[in-house]
Structures are given as C-alpha cells and as structure tokens.
Write a structure and sequence with these properties.
Layout lengths: L1 E7 L4 E10 L8 E2 L3 E8 L1 E6 L2 E6 L2 E5 L4 E3 L8 E9 L4 E5 L22 E6 L1 E3 L2 H16 L6 H24 L2 H15 L7 H8 L3 H12 L3 H19 L4 H7 L5 H12 L3 H9 L3
Helix pairs in contact: 1-2, 3-5, 3-6, 6-9
C-alpha cells in the first residue's frame, strides 16, 4: 500500500465534510482541485481516475485525491453508492511512498525552553486502500452533526474531530506492521526492559529469559524503535528519572538509586549528557511550570 507523507506542524486544515448516496448512472465530473479530496466509500463502488490512473473504490475503501491533479469519474456507478468526502488544505508539498518505507521508529527531538521552531515531523495518510468502517463512520457522523449547527464556539471542536479522523487513518497504516513477528518480538523486549529498569542491562540474560536469539531480538527492537536494547533501557531510565524529578520530593541520590545507578556522580553525568542539563537544573526548571 502507498501512503502520502505530509510535513507537520501545522496540521492540515479542514475545509468541509459531506455525505451523499449516488444512484445508478451518476458519474463524477472532471476537474483540477487545489485542495485534498478524501473519498470514502461505505457501500457500492465509485470509479475515479486521477491523472489517468483508474481506481475502483469499493465499500470499505478510500482514495486520497491530491491538489493540482486532474480527476474524473471514468465510469458511472452501477449500483447505489454511499460516499463520504472530506476536503482539506495543506500547503507543504506531499510525497508518496510505500508504507513499508515509513520510518515509524524515528525519534523526534525533545523540545526545550530555547526552541523557536518545532522539530521535523510527518503525518502519513493512505493514498488508496481499506479502512475500518465502524470506527471511521462514527467520527465522520460526529463531524456532520456538528457541521449542521457549527458556531464559533465549537469551531475548535470541529478541527479536533478532523484531527481524530487523521489519527484513525494513520493508525490503520501502522496496524500493518503490528501483526509482524518482528513487532511482537520488539514488544516483548520493551516489556522486559521496563520490568527490569532498575537492574543493570545484560543482553545474554535477557535473550535467555525471553528465549530469543540475542542479535535477532536486538534487530527487531531497532527496527521498531530505532534503538538498541541497551539504548532503550537507558532511555527508560532517563524518562523515569524525569518523572521522579518533576512529581516527587525524593532527593537526587534516592532517584539515582531507584532507577538503578549506585554511583550518584555517574547518574548526574549521564543525565546531563542525555537531557542537556543536570538533574537539579531540570527539577528547578520544571518547578516553574507546576
């Protein structure tokens, strides 16, 4: 399956949402639209071509038409066809790619008080493929109900619902990898590392307890998180340390001991190297926002 990559933020902007039932013989006219047109079929079949490429969108399938490309119904409907559509705008250029090439595990840089622009991020939407009918229909029907009585008071609510729609669509792409053996192995490794957060990392012992080859389990984790088991274990420790620094009154030495560092000075050095500030500076900065 191919998908469309959109750079964010900002998120795409909703223009309108609609629903109609096309009768036998109806056919979409030809046009070049300057916005994205997301077509979702819940019953019947819609025939649509984009720049000469024909698609037959069956029940439970969608097609994302891109701005600036010609589209037309190349065949009329041969049965009653239930269609929802969403028009949205996004100024950043898009890029098409196979879903298997999406770098889901790429880590996004953690923001700091000194950042003036957000870190590079992307949204991925299916170009053409299937979707989970019941989940998507609920979101779309909520959007349609709100559109009928939309006022400024609820304008943000409409955009939030649109964001929910985008989340559901992207989640459908991610589900393709979650059934793979490598994902299941990576998930077991992550669970093991969380459970042994305060213990020193030992690759051989982990492999023995999980009954996975050491190199294979490391490759699986790296594929789905971008990190080796040791680096992931270290990341978990730092995240736990941050939570304790923000939400507890424990001393820095106690926190170091809780997450498995017997050498307080080493904990301080590695925290600063990872987070960019010392534990005490992090706690002071966090207190300003509590």
């Amino acid at each position: 399956m191919d998908c469309v990559q959109l750079r964010i933020p900002p998120l795409p902007q909703l223009l309108t949402v609609g629903h109609s039932r096309w009768t036998v013989g109806m056919q979409h006219f030809e046009r070049i639209f300057q916005v994205y047109d997301l077509l979702m079929v819940f019953d019947g079949t819609l025939h649509m071509s984009e720049n000469g490429i024909p698609y037959s969108i069956n029940a439970g399938e969608l097609l994302l038409l891109e701005p600036g490309l010609s589209h037309v119904g190349h065949l009329p409907c041969t049965e009653t066809t239930d269609i929802y559509w969403v028009h949205f705008k996004h100024d950043a250029p898009c890029q098409k790619m196979p879903v298997k090439q999406v770098a889901w595990s790429t880590r996004i840089r953690e923001g700091t008080d000194y950042d003036l622009t957000p870190a590079e991020q992307f949204l991925y939407l299916p170009k053409y493929g299937s979707f989970e009918i019941e989940t998507l229909k609920k979101v779309l029907d909520d959007m349609l109900r709100l559109r009928q009585t939309l006022t400024m008071e609820y304008a943000v609510d409409m955009q939030v619902l649109f964001g929910r729609l985008l989340t559901v669509l992207q989640s459908g792409l991610r589900m393709e990898r979650k059934g793979s053996r490598s994902y299941l192995v990576a998930n077991k490794v992550m669970t093991y590392l969380r459970a042994h957060l305060a213990n020193p990392f030992h690759a051989g012992r982990m492999a023995e307890e999980l009954h996975f080859d050491e190199d294979y389990s490391a490759r699986c984790l790296r594929k789905h998180t971008g990190m080796s088991p040791m680096k992931y274990h270290h990341m978990l420790r730092m995240e736990e340390a941050k939570q304790l620094l923000i939400y507890s009154d424990r001393s820095l030495r106690e926190i170091a001991d809780i997450i498995g560092y017997t050498d307080y000075n080493y904990f301080t050095r590695i925290f600063k190297r990872t987070i960019g500030v010392t534990p005490s500076m992090f706690r002071q900065a966090s207190a300003q926002y509590m």
